[in-house]
Amino acid sequence: MKKLFAFISFVFLSCVTFSSQAAQCDWYGTTYALCTSQATGWGWENNQSCVGYNSCPSTVASSSSSGTTSTSGSCPTSLSCPSGMSCGCYTVSGLGANKVAYKNAGADRRFLASAMMETEMMDTNYTYGDGKSGDAFNAGATKQNWGMMRQCYSAWRGLGANDYSVSAAMNNDRSLDVTVYNTCRSYFGDSWFAGHRNGSTGLSNPNTQDINNFKIGYEWTYNNLSGHETDDIRFWVDIPAI
Fold first, then answer.
1. Range from 25-29, 70-74, 129-133 that averages highest in pLDDT
2. C-alpha to C-alpha distance for 215 and 164, rounded to whole angstroms
3. Which long-range contacts (CB under 8 A, 24 or more apart) does 186-192 make?
């Protein structure tokens, strides 16, 4: 009887593993890998975020490879800009490859939209710290600020404003970059927009017109990225740098 039970258990576990490998999780419009080592909650496997099968709202067939091929793409024939803002679309050679690289590191469309608002190539090839230091120091493709990161990312809690250089590791580690981003978005919730836009001042006063414009611009970018998550197309909306 024990051998029979062990055999049944083995078959059941094998089926679960096969199911995880043959499908991906459709997390309300964003695709993630299904975890093979846990059935519930979020996990981290193969250098990317994954969702336990029992926590996934729905599944879709997985692609035949772990990567995604970038394409040149084309801009929409017309764009509706946010009220009172300029916007546009153009092709950036090689941009699709960067999108794919971050997606393979676990990035979803939220991350891609944030990175697209910061640099043309959605990369970290900008002035060290974005020319800032202390809590204002920026790192990663989405230019996250140190003041927020040392609050939300558990490994950096307890560090001070002058320890900002620690976060520069994100510039060369896409998986770390994406992990910190996802952690901060979860930690701060809707207040993330205010802090990302204007640091501690924004967190204290989150409803300024400037912050609201930034959020509107982000949502416009996020929505237009649908269907353009692996191509060379860049959408832009005029949000002045601060």
1. 129-133
2. 26
3. 186/152, 187/151, 187/152, 188/148, 188/152, 192/148
CA 97 to chain centre: 15
Instruction: Note the pLDDT tens digit of each residue in 181-231.
Output: 999 999 999 999 999 999 999 999 999 999 999 999 999 999 999 999 999
Tokens matching residue 88 = 């546009």
Report the percent of the chain where pLDDT is more than 70.
85
End-to-end CA distance of the chain: 70
* Other Cβ atoms closer than 10 A to 205: 11
* Burial grade of 150 (CB within 10 A; 0-12, 13-18, 19 or more): buried
H-run or E-run covering 60: strand 59-61
> Which CATH number is 23-66 given?
2.30.32.30
Closest to 88 measured CA to CA, from 228, 212, 216, 238: 238
Q: How far apart are CA 15 and CA 52, in angstroms?
A: 15
Q: Identify the residue whose tokens are 């979803």.
A: 108
Tokens of 67: 């990567």
Q: Rounded distance, CA 26 to CA 28, Å?
A: 6
